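Bug: token stream looks shifted between consecutive jobs. Job 1:
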Amino acid sequence: MKGQTMASHTPGPYSYTPTGGMIYAKGMKPVGYVATAHGEAVKDANGKLFAAAPLMLDILKQATEAWEEQFDGPADQDLDVSGSDLVDWFTEWRGLAKAAIAAVEGKANG
């Protein structure tokens, strides 16, 4: 793939419709179809996972960007990181991660 740039995905949020197995981006633009080759329960689990992908990507990006902004220092220096700052940041991020997991598992909240 030398010299080629990777295409960007369709922006989320996505939603999954079990009837028909369609995955839609905001504005009801179809972005995917989930096949029933392994049965309805697997199809629905896969649809929820695919629909949550943009949310999970955003949460992972947020974690890496926040870490770089708040805790990374020059590579040749030790950096003092406040334990309480790290715990506060992680507590907030964990709530976002739990919400994404709940969305994939079809639960109301994490």
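Job 2, same session, no restart:
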Amino acid sequence: MPIAWAVLALKPIKAMAGEWPQALFNAPTSQAALGLLQAGTALPGPRILLDVAEIVEDGDRVVVRVMSTLPSTDQITLLADTELKPVLAQFNISPDLEPDITTHIRLSGTGTLRAVVRAGGKIYSVTKEVKVAEMPWTSSTPRSKRKKADPS
């Protein structure tokens, strides 16, 4: 009997996962990705928080938080215009969860970070400029020897 319960428990998760949006993650530009998201005419998102530092010490590990207070938020996508593949992440939000995600991303340089939110069948977008002070993969200093940022 436990195996049957395990199968039943996994079935909804697999069904919710959906198909991998390969075309979206392979989009060559931010504009192409926004077209695939149908975000070309996205509404401004005053009820969306895009929380990321304006200046990051290096682009290797950038903490980003996106929170939406829009009703029926079911998807959050992060894009960066400086990346060769601008779609960084996409989160499908279950109706039972709060649309509040925190993740780490890698940025190759200074540019615009965009959160695209789908809520109630409409597309909303917010942007924030992020300056990358150092790109670690171009630094001559090995990562293990770099000075860590003071968290205070």
